[in-house]
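INPUT
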Amino acid sequence: MNMFNLFEKYLNTQTFSNIDLRYLDTNFIPNRLPHREREINLLAENFGTALMGTPPRNIFIYGKTGTGKTAVTRFVGRELINYSDEKRISFIYMNCEVKDNSYSVFETIGNSFSGEQIPFTGWSFDRLYSTVKKKIDQWNGIVIVVLDEIDKFILKNGDDVLYQILLLNSELERSKISIVGITNDVKLSDFLDSRIKSRLNEEKVVFSPYTSNDIFDILKDRVYLAKLDNYVSDENLKLISTLAAQENGDARRAIELLKTSVYIALSNGEKALNEKYVYLARAKMDSDAIAESIRMLPVQSKILLLGIALLYESGNTQVNTGEVFEAYRNLAIAAGLPVLTPRRITDMLSDLDMQGLVSAKVKSLGRYGRTKLIDLSIPVSEVKKVILQDENLSKLNNYSLPKQSRLL
DNA sequence: CCTCCACCGGAACGTGAGGAGT
DNA sequence: ACTCCTCACGTTCCGGTGGAGG
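OUTPUT
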């Protein structure tokens, strides 16, 4: 094969050298957020008091993924800081999926201020707390702390952080903290301690999903910024926004779909985007997401999943916990890995279920006990392909399960 | 109506890794 | 070198349970 041919298609894309795909990044926050005017104004009114020296009310933002919660919040925050001039306002944003324990939340807050650097682990909580308190008070101003995806945090750790931040706030003498919580979960406040709820006394803002037309406008803006006007047609955008609207009006996914479509079309040397690439991109995104979530699994979960896949491959349509454990055990031994207890396996199965890789239902078989019936939600071939890439599992390449002694 | 299967899933605890301070 | 901290991952122990068969 001629190496020059291999790269030729990339050379062709030079025609579009003024294109700037950074504007299709989902983290990019534009200066215009179409169809979120109401939400922007609500937040601006709330944050605005900070400019007059009054700490904003605590606020909780509800809405599904890709409804612009994060973008709007960061946008308004950015504007606030731009307007604040001499005013002492600090805007601290963090994603609780990354900062997933009290320690790192406080560490992030603390390290937003000058002074002693706090290590990302190691300190006792008391020391951390008092250092953060000292730093904030020395700074002397209003602090807005944004906790994005706070529902995931609370599900995992409980609502202690909120209490700790509220406590910190009440102990501050010169500064004040306002909390902004961003969540997908409408029922979040059910999980909050009533003591915390009353002290939070928060305002609520709900972001509704975008319609297909809303998404079209958002995409149109991005296309303009990225200088893709001549590459992407309105029909393309209509298709993408319709697809995205079907998937819960998630603008983030719509932008990603646009970006992926354009990438694929460009690297195929196309002079313009067409429908075919949109569908290709969508298929690619789906299978990438699955492959990625399988790849990220710990090795023990991988062989568990592989076990389920092999059971399927050998003709089963639904398998129960007992069979799965047996298959898992054989694979673990064959791979030279320790065999974990059934208790651990149930937890791992629940994880796989939550990730949507399998679906499991408990079913009672009366006299014959109770078990979980497990369905594999993804193609067997995909599972095998990705899992067998794991270097620790190379021994399993041509492995097949021993014959089941018990017939169904 | 009761039993009893084959597993579910909560609670408590152990271990070892990763990092910091002294 | 030693202590202190937190977290992820696993184990042990064990009470709980829907419903077919008696």
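end of record. Residues 19 and 227 of chain A are 5 Å apart (CA to CA).
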